Every structure is written in structure tokens, then in C-alpha cells.
Task: structure prediction
Amino acid sequence: MKDVLVYIELIEDGVRPSSREAVSAGREIASATGGSVIALIASGEPVGVPTLDGVDRIIHVTHPALGAYTAEAHAAVLADMIAKLDPAAVMLAYTTAGLDLASAVAVTASLPLVAYCTDVTVADGALTTTSQMYGGRLEAVVRAPLPVVVSIMPGAFPEAVTTGASPEIIVQDAPKSLDALRSVFVDEQRPARGSFDLSLAERIVCIGRGIGAADSIAVARELADALNAEIAGSRPVIDQGWLEKERQVGKSGRLVKPRLYIGLGVSGAPEHLEGMRSSDLIIAVNSDAAAPIFTVAHYAAVCDMFDLVPALIERLKAGTP
Amino acid sequence: MHIMVVLRLVADLGGDIEIAHGGKDIDREWVDLKLNEFDDHALEEAIFLKEIVGAKVTAIMIDGDGVERSLQTALARGADEARRIAVDDTDGPISSRAMTPVVAAAAAELGADLVLTGVQSPEDIFGQLAPSLGAVLGWPQASAVSSVKPDDGSTITVQQEYSGGVSAAIRLPLPAVLGVQTASRPIRYVTGSKLRQAMAEEIPRIEATAAVAMPDVEIVELRVPDEAGGAVMLDGDADAIADEILRLLADRALLQVC
Amino acid sequence: MISQPAMRFDQPGRRLQGLLAAIGHRRLIRNRYSGILHAMIFVSFFVLATAIVQSFGSVLFPGFSLAPVGGDTWIALAQDVFAIVMLTGVALAAWQRLVLRPARFKGSNNTDANIIYILIVIIVVTMLLEAAFAIVAGSGASAIWRPVSATLGAAFTAMRMSPEFASQAHDVFYWLHVGAILAFVVYIPGSKHRHMLLAAPNVYFRSLKPIGQIPRPTPEVPPPPLAAATDFAWKDMLDTYACTECGRCQAACPAYASGLPLSPKLLITDLRDHFVTQPADAPIVGPTISEDTLWACTTCRACMEVCPVHIEHLPKIIGMRRTLIENGNIQPMLQTALSNLQRVGNSMGTASKMRARWTKGLPFNVKDARKEPVDVLWFVGDFASYDPRVQEISRTVALLFQRAGVDFGILYDSERNSGNDVHRVGEEGLFETLARENIATLSACTFKRIVTTDPHSLNALAQEYSAFGATYDVVHYSAFLLELVEAGRLPLGPTERRTVTYHDPCYLGRYNGGFDAPRALIARAGCAINEMGRCRENSFCCGAGGGRIWQDDSAMTERPSENRIREALALGDAELFVVACPKDSVMYGAAIDALGVSDRIKVVDLAELVMSAAETHS
Result:
């Protein structure tokens, strides 16, 4: 019970970046326990293990049922591997798959789970994490004994770098339960090409819940027009039907990387931050000085957007012939 | 179909959060409780399913402050029945992980064949409820669900959301557990008069038939992260801030019309 | 058509008094040009009615004549003179409608008006000619008593008209006159000019209820939603038939001015057309009156204030909104606000426990009226409690109370939104919940009177809660502060004399008559008031009332608040825009920013003005 098992999530062109971050978080634990970092890759075809830096070993499980993701199949593989390896820690990134799997395998293996981790340290056989609560409004320092399941916040750890040696790849048989799965993958939907694509926007003015009930989206729209930017919204704004779904920024909407992102009244839920944190220039305006978006913004102002936005529009209009 | 919806109350954090003495919980003096917003979507989805296929909807909560009113609201919104589950006194809120056995037992007892709950709660750092329930009950499970379509009565097809606007349709046999992210339709308004009618209903309180179970894990400290993190704060009144922002944009050639 | 009862047969004396005031053109004359021309036509009509009686009487009852009572003498003179008055009135009316063309006529049936002008001219001219020919023929009244007809007659005589020809011409014009009258009588009931018949009963049967109340059948039974014609009361129908399409309501309406799809006039005429042409159970909300029209209303009551025939627009709008609420037709922003009110008792959705947090910035503790008796219970209101811009004003009010030695307390997190605007949004159930919660909280407190900083709360507490059997001595802080100043408890020092203007909040002024106290306070604080044209009863709403503050205003071409600030700027010398309502601080602060005129005028709350004067007192 020294090794660290990392669940690797595959996407179209290889490994999901947040899985590489989970590897580096896993490395921190493994260095303390003196164990290895073992990656678990579950795929449908027996070929094509992607390059994966920073791990000591890769366990590759293949089975036709693992090709397209279902929680049931992947949880079965992960739980099977936990039972076989008895790792000190199981690492997952907090993505949809991480969400599905972490709690399920923790219950199955009767292990404690700590989620939303932004920092992990091991001392005296126990794990101490810093975990986000309330969408980053609060931080909890959590202590859990090993072995433990750890789900990390995407973006909180660096992607793992190469250790020099190529990891050994071990092909393992899939558990028998994969032959009798109940969940069936039907099909996948991707955003249609050619339709409006927020992720291509160079400049985005994004509104959040802080737009309030008293005033309107019109003000923000006017600013977006003056900046030649696209208007976008955080999840609550879209859920309310104030903007079209295709204008949603965040994990459940579009991942955006514009040259300019201006957040108006966006508090910065984790799912939102994940969708915009790599923008080139992030300016956040919020009346709440504790808004989590300020942790990723480059420039921030605590002020009422209804005071600021008209002032901005006025200046932009004055400057344009 | 009998749908059980699990609802949870969470703290309604305002502008300034303060940590209580002892450093392990928030100061609840200025804090109300509110329904976890994803649970709200789970309830809406359940009622939506009831309207399209005639399911029975039972809303349950672990009993505590504000629970009766929340369940009355669920009835006003269209739930057929509601139960508050009494568990042994514990200190503070019960985590999603700890309530899992209690909720799983209730699902079995009520004879539910579909359990809906919110995909996450702002407090569930020890694990999310839906996958935990699926594991305890041995039922298939999916998180981050944005729509549920009943097929022929024995299976449902759910839409599971991934990042980048990608989603997949997954078919699950009943019984199943779903962590709902967004309901198929916006949350409907329930009128004050319907709420008033529901306020007259007493919500049956039932004893838990399983014990709260929590692995050995605990919060040793709770803190408010540093304000603003690494951002450069722009100070002054709206005009001063506007001037500063314009300068930033001009410096980066972001003012030209492209 | 089946309709609902209206209970409008009480207090005949008061009803008659109002009718007489209307006959005296009290409201009409506020618009001088049209008021005078209407009075000319109105009075002439009654005088010329004698000619009609004479014309018809003489044929129907052989031997009938008004001569014994002066038909050939002073009545004849009056007819002649008022024929000219009538023609002048009609000429003025036609000039107004065809040349001046005020915007309030937009959407009115102008053809209808023109036909009536022509009919009146025919009736009057034929009457004059008939009399003139009679004079030439040597019959009828003597020329002395008919100066106008006589002049015409003299002209005919000068044209060498024979008495025989004149006699025949008299008969022709007699029949033309009678024919025109008959045409008029036939035309009237189908035209907007039926107001000649219905205006008086409509004024007589007007609502005498306190204007801040939405009548509730019983404490247990809320007012019903208005969905189809059968839900409306007979008085609602009478209202629509009595409408003259004069458009005064449209000219006063802030929603109309802001470009939203609401004209109170068209609302009434659309309802009228619906009642006339559609089956009794045909749905009104949606097909006839659109959702957007109903949500546009700020419930400011300017329309009802100016209507010469006392049409009640608001009860209809609010009643139809109840239908929208019942059917779940609610805009997303409004839904958020209402859900917040259900959940935490304020529209912002901030925790109820945060309600009294503004008091943390005070140098003393504010008493908890739930825990100890107080003289004055301060009902703070949502915006004054939660909006950071208004919290500062709330602290100023608290400091003023303390300075004057007032023993006051607040309800802390037990206070709920008063429900005034929830009620006007049509959310009866939520209103009842909020009202009953506040009433229950208040009933457990000991206090002598309630002071509120919020006119909307004032209206709810003073007028609406009585529907649930709760009555209070409630006063707005403007009146309360004035009392303190006048009693010498809050001495004010000398201040630099400044010119300001004052905006009457709808729910303080029009709804609760609080026009004078704020003005007296402003004067006491050493300022001179330069009144805007639209002041007191004719004040122009900021656009926030009746739930509008919870709705999207992106469809507006000009926000009412900005229109109002422009009006204040046009005064030229008003440095300060004084308000006495927390919502006004928010709305006008935003309007000044939006217009970019913060260097020319500033919004200041009455309390801040008083504080600055109090601070100069040594």
C-alpha cells in the first residue's frame, strides 16, 4: 500500500490535460509514501496507448465496452484495479467522468474520498488536502487516512513532466463484469461546425448572476457591441433563458480562450473558471470583493457594473470616430 | 415509474463569509439555508417526467431546520408525496457521503425505481451523492445529466454532459440513479397560492432504517481564501476604473475594430 | 353578457359630489386648450338641446311651443349665441385634431371625431338658417332675440329673397336640421361620443375605495384573476364604453413614453372591442391584451388620475396579471425576483439574516423591536436594507432618529418585503404570505407607531394590510422628520441656499397624499424648490413601480427615469434631485450615470439633505 493509482481520461487527441495534472498531484503523494505512480488507461481498442509523462507504470485495460465512456464500465475497471493493487491513493480529475467514478469507487472500496482538492500533502500516513467549497468561496483543510480517493480541481496542479524513463506498459484483462453491463452508450453529440462558435471569439463580454434582477442585459450587450465582442453568460444566466445555450461559458458550455474576457457580475463558479481561465486578458468586475473569479482574473474591480459599464461605453464611443 | 428525488439544504452564503469560532464551520449568524440548486433541477426533471409519462414523484430530505417547508414547496411544485427522514442527532449538517446509506435504504423501502438528485452540492467535499447511491444500491448511475427520456418503461435514455459542449446519450435500465445538472426545461414558477395550499400539508416524518456512515475523514480547518488572489485590483470610482480599463485595452491593441 | 357585481351603489352624496366636480370640468381644465373647448361644446349642447326639443315637439305634439317660457325671447337669444359658441368650440376641436395633433390622439378613432364635428356643424348651421329663413318669412322669433339669425336673414333680404321662398327654405332646413339630429342620435351609440350618455354614470359609479387598496372580497378569498369577459364587473365594461379616447392617460403614461407596448387608452378600447365582438368566455389575456402590455405597467396611477371620466385602468391590468401569474407566464427576471421573495422575503435573494446587516456600520446598536418595546417601529424595506447605495441613506436616517432622541427599533431578519408590488404583479398568494408574516411579526411587538422609509411599504402597511384585519398608525419618514423638526427635537442649522427639485414618489404622493411634508422639509433644510412641470398628482413615475424594477427594460426606447432627469435638467438651475423613496435613489442614480450628467445634477435623499442641515446646527 504505497503506490498511487491515477485514472487517465482519454479524449479525441490523447489524454485529457486534467488527467496529466492528476498525475502530478499523484506524484506528490507517491514521493511521500515511497511508491510508484501507476496510470490506469481503459480503452476499447488494444492499440494506441498515448504518451504519458511522469508515471512509472501504465496499466492498460481494453474491452469493447470501454470504448465509449459509461460510468458503469469504467467504475468496474477502476474498482477492480483498486482491489488488485491496494494503492495508497487513487487520483482522479474533477471532470464528468471523475465525478461519476470517484464517489462510486470510494463507496465500493470502502475508502474515504476528498474532492475539489487544490493541494495535497502526505505526512505520518495521512493525507492533508486543501479543498474548495462553495465554488471556491471557502477552502477546507481536510485530513484523511490512507488509503484514500482524491479528486482534484482541474487547473490547480501543473501537468506532469517527463521523468526521462518511458513507463512500462502492462496490459491487463478486463474484469468479467464488463461482459454483462447494463448501461449502453447510444451516441455522442458535438457542437455543430459552422454554427455560432463562442470558442472562436476574440473578445468576450460575459455576464453572470450579478447582473441582478433590477437591470438588464441590454447594458452589457451595448458594451459588447462597443468592444466588438461577443456577449456570453455563465450557467445561471443561460439556465434563466436570458441568453442562448451556445453563449454559455464554462465546463457545461464552451471552453473559451479569447484575447479579452470581461466578466460582469460573474462570481466564478468552478465550472465557469474552468471554461475561461486560460483567456489572455481577464478583467473581472463584481460588487463582491470575495468573488472567486478574482482568483483567476488579471485585473479586477470591486464596483457595481451598472456604474462602470455606462462609463466604459461612454469612453469607447467617444474614442470611435 | 416511481421517482424518488433527494433534496438537500445548503448554506446561502452572502457577501462576507465569516468563520465560526473553532475554525471548522462558517458563522451561521447571517446565513440562511437554501435548496441546493442542482437538487432544484433534479426536482424539476422529476416533475417534467411525471407530466410526460405519469410517474409518481416522492421527494425526501434528511430532517432538520427548514426541511418541512422545502418539502411543502416540492409538493406545490408537483411532487406527489414527501418524506422527512429522521436520523440520530449529529453535529451540524450531514455530508452527502454520510447520508448515502440512509437515502439508499429509503429508496429501497419506497420502492423507487429512479432516484434523482443534484449532480453536486457546494458542500460535498467527501463525495457526491448520486454515484455513491448507485454504488450502495448496485444500480447503474450517471452524473451531469441534462435530460432524461423514458424509453419503453424499463429503460431510460439520459444525456450526459462533458466539457466543451460535448454530450452523450446513455441508455440505462431501471432502477437507476442520476445526478442531474440541468433540467430539461427552466424551473417553473410555483405560485404563492399553490404554496399556501401546500403549507397546510404535514410532511410525514419517518425513521431512518440505516445508520449514517462516515469514513474517517474530517475538516480540520475552514478558511476564506485570500481576496482577489493574484489579480491587480483597479481602485477608485467607476470613472477611474473605466479609464484604467481603457488604458489596458489600448495597451494590448484591443480597441481597434477587427 | 354575464358580469361580476361591483358594489357601486353606496354613498350617493359623495358620488353626486364627484359627478358635479366632473361636470365642472375639474380634470378636463388641467389641459387648458381642450378643457375650454370641451366646456364650450358641453354648455352649448345643453342650451341647443332646447332647439331640439322645440323642433321635435312642434311636430310630434301639434301646438307645442317653448314660446310661453321664452322660446321666442331669451331662449331664442341663448340658442343664437351658443350656436356661435358651439361652432367656435368645434372649430377649436377640429384645429386641435387636424392641425395641432397632440400625440395623445395617436391610436384614437379620429374619423369618428371628424364625423361628429361635421354632424354638429350641420345641426347648428341648419338651426341658424332655419331661424334666419323664418325671420325673412316673417314668422318665428323677433329679430331682436335672434341677432345671428337676423343678420343672416338681413343678408337674404338684401339678396332680394321673397318671403314665400324663405318660407319654403325654412321648411327644407327644418327637415335638414331634424334629419341631422336623427343622424346624430343614431350615430352616437356606436361611436366614442356615447360618452355623452355614459360619462356621467361612469363618474357617478366610480370607485370610492381608498386608492391604495386592491379590494379583496374577504380575508380568506383573494381577488380573482381576470381571464375572460365574464370575470369582469359591469363597471369594468361601463368604463370601456365610457372612454372618449381623449388620450390623456396615454400622454401621462410612463410605460407608453418609454416605448413599451402599453397605452392605457388602447388597453381600454381593445377591451371594449373584445367585449363587443368576442364570445363571453373568449380568453382576453394573450389574444386581445398581450403579456408585454400587461407587464409594462408601473402601476403609477397617472392614467387614472387624469381620466376625465374616471376609468379604472389599474384594477383591470392587475387583474389580468393575476391570470398571467396563474398560468405561469412570467418573464425570467420577474420569476427570479418572485422566487427570491418566496425563499428569503426580499427580491434580491440575499439571505434574510443579512437584512439588518447595514446596522453594523452604525456607532450604536439599533433596538430589536421583537425583543423590547419601542416608541417607533421602523419598517425599513428591501432596498433600504440590502442595496449598498441605499444602506448609506438608511444609516443616515438612523443617525437622524438618534440625534432627535427617538426611541426606535427594527424587525431585523423577521421583516419581509411588504408585498405592495408583489400584489400589483398579480401574485396574490405570495402577497398574502408576505403580508401575513409581517402582520404576525408586528403583532408580537410593542410600539406606538410605524415609520417607514419606503413609500411602497407605507402603502401596504397603511392601506393593504387592513384586508387581513391589521391596521397601523403608519407614517412616512418625510412626515416623521418634519414632525421632529417642528417639535424642535431635530434642530437644523443655517445652510447654503441651494436650488433643488423634488420628485414625488407615486406611492407617497398620488397614492397616499404625501405631497407637502417633503417640500416643507426641503424648505426647512434651506433649499428653494424649483418644481418640475410634472409634480404632485401629475408626477412622472421613475419606472420602478408595480414590479417593473424586477423586469427587463431592454425594450425601452427611453427609460422613464432618464426622461425625468432630462426634465429636471431643463429647469436649468436645480443642482439636486431630491428623492424620498429608496427605489428612486437607485433608479435616478442609474439614470444620471447613463446620461452622463453627474456633473450637472445629483440625486440626494431627503434624509441626507436634512442631515447636512442638522450638522450645521451647533
User: Anything to note?
Assistant: The mean pLDDT of chain C is 93. The longest strand of chain C covers residues 498-502.
